[in-house]
Each structure stands twice: as C-alpha cells, then as structure tokens.
Design a protein that fits this description.
By secondary structure, this protein is mainly α. Helix content is 76%, strand content 0%.
C-alpha cells in the first residue's frame, strides 16, 4: 500500500495529460467541456487509479518516480505534436511550453536516484522463538499477508490521514457533482481541492517531513472549518474536527521523534 500511495502522487501528471489527450477523440454523444461535463472527472479518476496500481505493483522506489516522469514527458511531447497536426489555437507557444515541461521532467528524472528516495520499510518477520513453526506454516502465505495488510491499513495511526483524505475527497465529489445545488456544489468543489492539495500531501509527507505535514494538515483543518462556517453543512464540521485530531496526533509524533533524536545524539556523544 505504501507504493500505491506514492504512485498516486507520481502518476498524477501523466493521468492529467492522458485525459487532455482523450478529449480530442471524445465521441460526439458526450457533452462538451463548456457544459462542465463530469465524464472527464470520472475518466481522470479511473486512469489515475489504474496507473497508480500498475506502477505501484511493478516499480519500486526510484524507478517509480523516474518512470512516471518519463511517461509524463512522453505524453506532453505527444500532445504538443498532435496539437500541431490538428491546428489547435496557439499551437506554437503551447507546444513550446509542453516541450519545456517535458525536458524539465526528463532532467528531474535523471537526478532521482536511490540515495534521494526513502527505501521501502522491510516487512516485520516473526521471530524464531515467538511462535512455533507449525503455527506459521499452517496458514497460507497469501492469507497471512492479506491479514497483515488489512490490520495495518485499518488499525495503524499512520494510515488514518489517508483515510480522512480519501473520505473527504469522495464526500466533496458527491456534494459537488451528485447533489449539485448550492451551497453543496461550491463547498464540495472547494473541499475536493483541500483534500487533494492539502490532505493527501500531508498524509504522504508525515513520515519524511513531519513539520511540513503538520502545517499542511493544520491548513486543511482551517479550510474545512471555513467551509463549515460558510455553508453550515455538518460534513465540514466533522472534517475539521478530524483534521484537528490528526494534527494533534502528528504534532505529538513529531515531538516524540525529535526527543528521540536528541537523546540518541546525547548518548552517542
């Protein structure tokens, strides 16, 4: 699951570029983008999840980021060439911008190495004296791994922020595109942006940059509190309260890790 969460960030530009390319060959019976069509959102979510699942299952660590950046660069260059052949508006400047962004992606991928990516955490193995060999071997390996993954995904506090970001994004999407009436529509769009640009990065960075994750989580909680005051919907009150709880927990974890680092430095000296 850790690689899947990283893939959600790594494959985001590629999924957006694929949706932009798909709009050129959309069937005629689909509504146009001028009418705020929702099919592009569903297509983006489908492509994003599929790309993340494939990349997370087949690539690891540095290869995941390098492959996503190379794919994004190739798609951007393809979009520039196709736009030039189709005679789109502002073809020269837009193609030049896409080419420059693609070159930047390739250059960034060249600097992504194993020393710049956090290595995968090794899985916990059963100690030799903790359980008998008959107990470990009698259970199928796949069932044991799925049980460990389910317990970790549901019970470990480090995944709670991911749950909150996902639930907030789904509820925001429901309010914006299913309910569709004010004030649910405008607050749902704003809530989706908060979950996407603040909640999900805060959940991903909590192990690497806890202070940055703490600031992002606090900003997300303030955003949901503002939506609760403006719209009066109970969903945003709950989201703001949960963000506050996660911020307190993240601050406690950051303080504990800082104390452990100080104690380790004192003991080493």
């Amino acid at each position: 699951m850790h690689r899947f969460y990283l893939s959600l960030h790594a494959t985001l530009p590629a999924a957006l570029t694929l949706v932009a390319l798909a709009q050129w060959w959309a069937p005629g019976w689909l509504p146009s983008l001028a009418g705020r069509a929702t099919w592009t959102v569903w297509l983006f979510l489908l492509l994003w999840v599929l790309l993340s699942a494939v990349a997370g299952a087949s690539l690891r660590a540095a290869s995941l980021w390098r492959g996503s950046l190379y794919l994004t660069a190739g798609l951007l260059w393809s979009a520039g060439l196709i736009g030039g052949f189709k005679g789109a508006a502002l073809t020269g400047w837009v193609s030049m911008g896409m080419a420059l962004v693609g070159v930047a992606c390739v250059a960034l991928a060249r600097f992504v190495g194993p020393e710049r990516v956090r290595a995968s955490v090794p899985s916990r193995r059963v100690a030799k004296g903790s359980a008998g060999p008959s107990t470990v071997r009698s259970e199928p390996a796949f069932t044991r791994r799925m049980g460990q993954w389910a317990r970790a995904w549901l019970c470990e506090p480090r995944y709670w922020s991911f749950h909150l970001a996902g639930v907030a994004a789904c509820e925001s999407f429901r309010l914006a595109h299913v309910v569709g009436s004010e004030p649910a529509r405008s607050s749902g769009m704003a809530g989706l942006l908060i979950a996407f640009w603040l909640g999900l990065p805060a959940a991903t960075l909590q192990n690497w940059m806890p202070r940055t994750a703490l600031a992002l989580g606090l900003t997300a909680g303030l955003g949901y509190a503002g939506l609760a005051l403006k719209s009066g919907l109970p969903q945003w009150h709950v989201a703001a309260g949960l963000c506050a709880c996660l911020v307190v927990h993240a601050g406690w974890r950051a303080r504990s890790s800082h104390r452990q680092a100080i104690n380790a430095g004192v003991l080493s000296t």
